[in-house]
Write a structure and sequence with these properties.
Amidase signature (AS) enzymes, 11-stranded mixed β-sheet, 17 helices
Length: 485
């Protein structure tokens, strides 16, 4: 047991501080039978009962089944059948990930009573790993937004300050992990929906390479841009979750047949020879002054763990950002409308007004425009490697501005403009399909978290996680928790 674990376990009142440990820490305690999965699950359920009314992070809590799963995990471990690092660990799922027998709503009245008959592929893999499922997490309706303020079940509130946005669309996932309601969560990311809320809630959020993690059984926002990934407290935790869910899925047309490395082992390798690219064109323009200051300090820390920075030019196929983002917007709008077309024709009134307006923006996109944009998207992804030849990783702020208050997001038209600003630095990496992680790197003067984004080449998750872990160990940001207690 580490000194940190001993300290936490020795001073926790009524075992409450167990929830402050990371996934990797409690995993070791469970493996060595010093902590029970049932105890962990009871602690998480207790915090959900206490704090979820304030945060609105969970839509559905599956307490009874979670305790049954925890009991089974405990019995297996007691008999020497430990399945791996996620065995007996309580986690939660964004509420667009299908779970057999448990409603999956996408935060919409349209699906408020929808109960899938089959698990999503990521759920199947997590069950094989022995994870315990606490429930389904609130989100921006149908993942079409970056604030999680538009939901049939009400807005998600930031655990650092309840009057502020938690980010989106995986806002409930970020809030639940930051508030220690679970040890990890699954999010989805089409334009930044894992990394942006991770940055705004002070946690780690990883968007893997496009096609590395199956999206089978995950309600789509845009098939060509959707990614599924882990949201956790540390980079090591993200590595453990990614290990369980990564890999080829023959049912997913976008799935890549890629040899999955041992992420937890490679994360310990040296970072001293890594070449870091700092694309100051675009990504560092018009930064809020407090984010600029936090990033300058973070870059100086990175210099000590990875070497000096290496400036690079734009990551697009030419010098304009629009050459990357414009085709993706056409693809996103067309694919989203295609999925929802039949539902809208029958039950348009069941959508939130803002969501319906955004979906209908794809109605007039011609097939020829979609085909051309989809072809451009493929060309952009194939050409990106030559822009990364001189660097191993790219470092940017996760978002250029601090999170907004929920009051600032009440007016739909102005709210969309604010969301696009919040997602400005994350969206290019969905288009490019690159692995990208957000890690906490500071706080604003108002006490709200700031995130730093680390991006690598296709299939470069191991390197991305390695630097993220080294930075986390060199700083203390992931040791801070919202003052909910």
């Amino acid at each position: 047991m580490t000194d940190g674990e001993q300290e936490l376990l020795s001073r926790r009142p009524g075992n409450t501080d167990l929830t402050k440990l990371s996934l990797s820490e409690v995993s070791e305690l469970v493996r060595t039978k010093r902590v029970s999965p049932v105890e962990l699950t009871e602690e998480c359920l207790g915090r959900i009962e206490r704090f979820n009314p304030r945060l609105n992070a969970f839509i559905t809590v599956t307490g009874e089944s979670a305790l049954r799963e925890a009991g089974l995990a405990e019995e297996e471990i007691q008999h020497g059948n430990w399945r791996g690092p996620l065995h007996g660990i309580p986690i939660a799922l964004k509420d667009l990930v299908d779970t057999a027998g448990v409603r999956t709503t996408a935060a919409s009245a349209l699906f408020k009573d929808r109960i899938p008959a089959r698990d999503a592929e990521v759920v199947r893999r997590l069950k094989t790993a022995g994870a315990v499922f606490l429930g389904k997490l609130n989100m921006h309706e149908f993942a079409y937004g970056g604030s999680s303020a538009v939901s049939y079940f009400g807005a998600v509130r930031n655990p650092w300050e309840n009057g502020y946005c938690a980010g989106g669309s995986s806002g409930g996932s970020a809030a639940a992990v930051a508030a220690c309601l679970c040890y990890g969560a699954i999010g989805s990311d089409t334009g930044g929906s894992i990394r942006e809320p991770a940055g705004y809630c002070g946690i780690v959020g990883l968007k893997p390479t496009y096609g590395l993690v199956s999206t089978t059984g995950v309600l789509p926002m845009s098939w060509s841009l959707d990614h599924v990934g882990p949201m956790t407290r540390t980079a090591m935790d993200a590595a453990l979750m990614l290990q369980a869910i990564a890999g080829h899925d023959p049912e997913d047309a976008a799935s890549i047949d890629f040899r999955v490395p041992d992420y937890s082992r490679s994360i310990a390798e040296s970072t001293s020879s890594l070449r870091l690219g700092i694309p100051r064109d675009y990504f560092y323009e018009a930064l809020h002054q407090e984010i600029y200051a936090a990033m300058e300090i973070a870059l100086s820390v990175l210099e000590t763990v990875a070497g000096s920075e290496c400036d690079i030019g734009p990551l697009a196929t030419d010098a304009t950002y629009s050459s990357v983002i414009d085709p993706s917007l056409t693809v996103q709008k067309a694919e989203c409308y295609t999925y929802h077309k039949e539902y809208i024709s029958k039950n348009a009134e069941l959508y939130q007004d803002a969501t319906l307006k955004r979906i209908r923006a794809g109605e007039e996109i011609a097939a020829s425009a979609y085909i051309q944009s989809r072809r451009q998207l493929d060309q952009i992804r194939r050409s990106i490697s030559r822009h990364l030849e001189n660097v191993d990783l790219v470092i940017t702020p996760t978002s250029p501005v601090p999170t907004f208050s929920l009051a600032d997001l009440r007016e739909p038209d102005s709210a969309r403009a604010k969301e696009l600003i919040m997602l400005r630095n994350t969206r290019p990496f969905n288009v490019l399909g690159l692995p990208s992680i957000s890690v906490p790197c500071g706080f604003t003067l108002a006490g709200m978290p700031i995130g730093m984004q680390i991006t690598g080449p296709p299939g470069g998750e191991a390197t991305v996680l390695r630097l993220a872990s080294a930075y986390g160990k060199a700083t203390e940001w992931h040791h801070r928790y919202p003052g909910l207690d």
